[in-house]
Amino acid sequence: MPNVDLMIFGGGIAGLWTMHEASRRGYRCLLLEAFALGSGQTVASQGIIHGGLKYTLQGMMTGSARRIREMPSIWRKSLAGEQLPDLSQTEIRSNNCYLWRTESLSSRLGMFGAKMGLQVVPKNLTPDEVPDILAGCPGSIGRMDEQVISPYSLIQNMADAFPEQIFRYDPTNLKFLHDKNGTLIAVQIHAPDGTPITIQTAAVLLTAGGGNETLLQLANPAATVQQKSIMQKRPLHMALVRGTLPPFNGHCVDGAKTRVTITSDIDCQGRTVWQIGGQVAETGVSMNRRELIEYAARELSASVPGIELNSLEWNSYTVDRAEGATKSGHRPETPQILQDGNLLTAWPTKLALAPQLAEEICERLSEIHVAPTPLDDSWKSELKRLPRPQVALPPWETAVDWVRLDEQFSQREAA
Ligand SMILES: Cc1cc2nc3c(=O)[nH]c(=O)nc-3n(C[C@H](O)[C@H](O)[C@H](O)COP(=O)(O)OP(=O)(O)OC[C@H]3O[C@@H](n4cnc5c(N)ncnc54)[C@H](O)[C@@H]3O)c2cc1C
Q: Quick check: bond before 221 cis, omega within 30?
């Protein structure tokens, strides 16, 4: 019977970064994915390795800003292949993000807050350095050393390191097995031909994003109602636009918010695609697709004056951010870990915080006396019958029915 130290459910950034960190410390890890790797949030995310900008916009050094500002240097070293995990095969979309603002007073204050306490401090650009599409924006325009990565290539890079330890399984045919004291000791899954496979494990980690709640209920049916209300989902309605666009990554600050956050990539046909998030995606949750697209276009033309909207194609996608529950329902300030004996449930809160989450999980393993066992590959043979999961495709590759803004709309905007 296969026997591992840590069984991880869910191959988004949280599960994969933890797998790398735990393996580096000598733990025998196995990761089981129900669908495609990164298919919940990670591949749909904007891939910004935040240095705390968003959390200093109120002019305060919040808990989130303090924790997250350590992250960019960890990522930078991994992306350069200078430390484990080796992320040198991950595509870096940009090594910096632009930062600019609208005319309002609150925007000026927001910019002031953004410059306080950040390790990634924006550098004011000279007029020659300002990209054409931002010419005409009020105030100084900054550039921050905030890296933007391709989440798809990140997941691919991280999964490639474990060709024999990451498998896809059928989540509808899963059992958690306990000993007579109620301690979790094994998991039963099924090979594609229906044969049951039982895997012993010293600890289980749930990093299934929005799937954590269901898994936790299955793993611990005796949990109280209170324990079961552990997760919150905060929806986003993101806009996508493709066509003749320059590669561009940045935030337009408006008060304590980012009015739009733009990241860009190239699709499989060589077209530039912009993902538009920030306040547009928060406010857009109550809108239908058409309303969101029109709203995003208005926001884009107001905040990026040099952009030509005609001929661009638009789309949108909805996605839930899954996090540990907070009393206020707002974003938690730090990664969240729940512990019930040798069962850990975790959410990183942000992609950028995955290194911190992984470190804290490994510390918890030591605290509950789960020790690395000597390396031995014999446990892998029985698992070879399980398939390897794909990496989820980015949202612009799966979106259908792209639309152009009609002439009437463009004229209305021009007026
Ligand atoms: C639109 C958007 C933009 C964002 N932009 C940024 C950003 O720029 N920077 C940043 O730092 N953060 C960003 N975030 C937040 C960040 O994406 C998330 O915090 C992070 O990706 C969560 O990772 P995760 O591994 O916990 O979950 P997920 O990425 O959701 O991964 C969960 C995995 O578990 C699998 N799974 C589900 N159910 C099961 C099951 N029963 N068994 C096994 N596997 C299962 C899923 O298929 C998936 O592979 C963004 C989020 C969104 C939604």
A: no
